[in-house]
Write a structure and sequence with these properties.
single chain, 171 residues, alpha/beta, five-stranded mixed β-sheet, 6 helices, globular
Length: 171
């Protein structure tokens, strides 16, 4: 199964693509979609949508794993990230890619085995699970890879063929 992990944002969207086969992970690709602060916000959203759509079309993932948002103290940031997350979800919908959402706690539990793990611990385990010599950069890409690993480890990664069929046919 090919899984696309996404760490949502509007300045940086972390992207990680892994294959999970026979209980083993293989790294396919990782990186980030970046938008500059001086670019109008609507254009930033368009860039995220277009680049993510191209990534989905290139790798044809069977699932997209996206981090659930949580509210922090900055309402403007949460609103802007929510808008970026909306175009991420739209890209998945338009390409018929099933989306699965996980909280940071679920990702930490899945990757490290401890829901209160520190970010550095998650990054180190991501590196180890994927057999990499160093932690992927930027941090957003490492987080996206952890999202993909989480989905592969979860029970919901066993895609329901009837649900998938309905999604792919647009029903």
């Amino acid at each position: 199964m090919i899984v696309l992990g996404i760490d949502p944002g509007y300045a940086i969207v972390g992207v990680g693509v892994v294959e999970y086969k026979n209980s083993r992970f293989s790294l396919i690709d990782y990186g980030a979609i970046t938008t500059d602060a001086g670019v109008p916000f609507n254009r930033r959203l368009e860039i995220i949508y277009d680049e993510l759509t191209a990534i989905i079309e290139k790798y044809k993932p069977e699932a997209m794993s996206v981090e659930k948002l949580f509210y922090n103290s900055n309402a403007k940031t949460v609103i802007d990230v929510s808008q970026a997350r909306g175009v991420i979800m739209l890209a998945a919908q338009k390409t018929h890619t099933p989306v699965y959402e996980y909280t940071p706690l679920q990702v930490k539990q899945s990757v490290v085995g401890y829901g209160r793990a520190e970010k550095k611990q998650v990054q180190d385990m991501t590196k180890r699970i994927l057999g990499l010599s160093k932690i992927p950069k930027p941090d957003d890409a490492a987080d996206a890879l952890a999202m993909a690993i989480c989905h592969a480890h979860s029970g919901s990664s066993m895609l329901d063929p009837f649900k998938t069929l309905k999604i792919r046919k647009g029903i």
